[in-house]
Fold this sequence. Notes:
single chain; alpha/beta; Heat Shock Protein 90; 7-stranded mixed sheet; 12 helices; about 45% helix
Amino acid sequence: MDEEQRGFAEIMIDSGKSLLYILNEILDFSKIEAGKMDLEQGPVDIRDMLNSVMELFSIKAAEKKIELYSEISSQIPERVRGDETRIRQILINLVGNAVKFTEKGSVTVIAEMDHSPEYGPHHLLLSFKIKDTGIGIALDKQHQLFQSFSQLDPAINRKFGGTGLGLAISKKLVELMGGAIGVQSEIGQGAEFQFTIVLEKWREEIVYVEDHLAARLELPDRNSLASGIRILIAEDQAVNSHLLEEMLRKFGGVCDVVGNGAQAVDLLAKTQYDLIFMDIQMPVMDGIEATCEIRKTHPGIPVIAAITAFAGERDREACLQCGMQDFISKPFHSAEIIRVLNTWVPYIHSQKVN
Ligand SMILES: Nc1ncnc2c1ncn2[C@@H]1O[C@H](COP(=O)(O)OP(=O)(O)OP(=O)(O)O)[C@@H](O)[C@H]1O
Ligand SMILES: [Mg+2]
């Protein structure tokens, strides 16, 4: 791309990111409001997590020439049990705010253990403080802070952006984790936010069954899940096929991509494949017709329908009718790809042995 095109592409990426950010905030907020926010329970390394959050803001802080400090008490165990994504989300918002509303000076994060015995032998209370030397918050405005869509100064917020949901979400998440959040500040004197959360101690004697998708993704052999499997992707949207191909390649799959059903049928007449991912709506020949054709000559190859998330029961029925065996929905998610591979790769191997 030339410089101008590159500039436009960067704007598109940035706009896409902020749109996604706002969407996610609104979705999170309404999920919490509806009482549908379930916390995951998995291993959390508080040190690692805090370091990565600080790193996330290091560029922004360097640009603004403000210092970032973090202190983490050595009493905090290496591993605790909780919802890493959500703890990170709270920290990202608070540290993000501190960096956003500070023009000079520093932002300091302190993580400590609280030894209140009331949490029993299997839980612990962590406390976090996020201090900045920024614009501060007037005492009479502090009660509004944690309300949804509340931003204190329209002029400032036009400059800094955001939706005013960050603190409302953080407060709800903190409360879901059995803690509390508060602020001390004076206008022009910086701000100090503190929050606490109750986490489970990690007990070596327990074998945890992780319901956490990320934990499942960390299985040591995931890189070879589809090792040597020859895969044909029929998909007319380059964005989709690209993403799918990248994911499958990461798992060791060997992929070819075609742009419609007719090309898939042609290629299958010449080349051997173990697994097919088939889009439904494609030009020239759609996925249903192509699968009907393929079934005449290749009864055994698993064909996975890649269908849009809003496809109805009827579309699924049609896919099964023509001999597709499984579905993945778009946009593709690696957890679903893993599920498909876990289901079909053993079958493919058993076919090869026979
Ligand atoms: N560290 C801080 N110093 C000064 N003002 C703050 C600080 N943190 C939050 N505020 C004020 O509280 C308001 C609400 O913060 P909140 O995180 O909820 O929203 P936001 O940062 O404006 O947008 P979002 O987090 O949704 O992107 C901010 O707009 C700002 O006016
Ligand atoms: Mg914020």
